[in-house]
Amino acid sequence: MEIAEIARVQEYLRKSLSNNRIVIAPPTKPDAPIEVYIADEFIGVLYKDEDEGEVSYSLMMTILEIDLPPIGGVPLIPKK
């Protein structure tokens, strides 16, 4: 992925998620994954997909169960 593409996706994520601390680090090697951070905390990997002339980008974020708050400390989200 080109640096200009990375910058565009980074700007999109910052605006969409209202968080200017999102940083997409250009890969250190040509085939290395493109890592996404909030400040210095790794949050996921960015992928580019090209299919029949259409380009899309996917952010794969893994959440470890151990990092989640305890069940009793989270309010339930009501159904609409």
Biggest sheet overview: 4 strands, antiparallel
Helix content: 10-25%
N-to-C SSE string, H for helix and E for strand: HEEEE
The main sheet orders its strands as 1-2-3-4
Q: Report the average pLDDT across residues.
A: 91
- The shape, in one word, is globular
- Termini separation (Å)? 40 Å
SS strand fraction: 25-35%
How many domains in all? 1
How many helices? The count is 1
Please, could you describe this protein's structure?
By secondary structure, the protein is α+β, with helices and mostly antiparallel strands. The chain has one domain (3-64). It is built from one helix and four strands, in the order αββββ. The chain has one helix spanning 3-16, and strands at 22-25, 34-38, 41-51, 54-60. Strands 1-2-3-4 form a four-stranded antiparallel sheet. The longest helix is centred in the first third of the chain and has 14 residues, at 3-16. The protein is globular. The termini are far apart. The mean pLDDT is 91.
What is this entry, summarized?
The chain is of the alpha+beta class and 80 residues long. Helix content is 18%, strand content 34%. It is built from 1 helix and 4 strands.
Keywords:
80 residues, alpha+beta, four-stranded antiparallel beta sheet, 1 helix
What topology emerges from the helices and strands here?
Elements: H1 3-16, E1 22-25, E2 34-38, E3 41-51, E4 54-60
Antiparallel strand pairs: 1-2, 2-3, 3-4
